[in-house]
From TrEMBL:
PROSITE patterns: PANNEXIN (PS51013). It comes from the Eukaryota. This is Innexin. The gene is inx. PANTHER family: INNEXIN, INNEXIN-5.
Amino acid sequence: ALLYLLPRLCWRSFSRHSGIDVKNLMEAAQSLKSVKRFHKHKTIMNYLVSLIHQYVGDPRKKSKQEHSQINAYIQGIIHCVIGTTNTFNSYLLLLYLFIKILFILSTFFQLYAIRLLLEQKWTVDDTIKSFRHIFTTGVLRSNPLSKYFPKISMC
């Protein structure tokens, strides 16, 4: 159970300051309402626009080029993974994938530790065979209300 805390702590620490800072945005909007002078109003408005533009790309500034459907599909996939216009979205996506990989590695490490504690020989091939056995023989579908252990669970 302790190994499942490590990815959670990584997620909380790395994703804390990513995304839109709503508190800053709301404070600037409240100060915009109370400002009497025009030049301060304009500077706060420019700040709000730049803050929002930082997270949301302007689609009007994109070049309108003709592409084939395959090129558009490939560019869409690259844009989703890398995030060419918005680095904050790609940061969160890559962080999310990294955390999921940590969960998977933690699971395999715990399987390895259990096999060591039970003094069984552990190989990756045996683990893959046991996963195939679980998912293909209907072990999960046989009795979902088993009194011994829930067969479908998410830790």
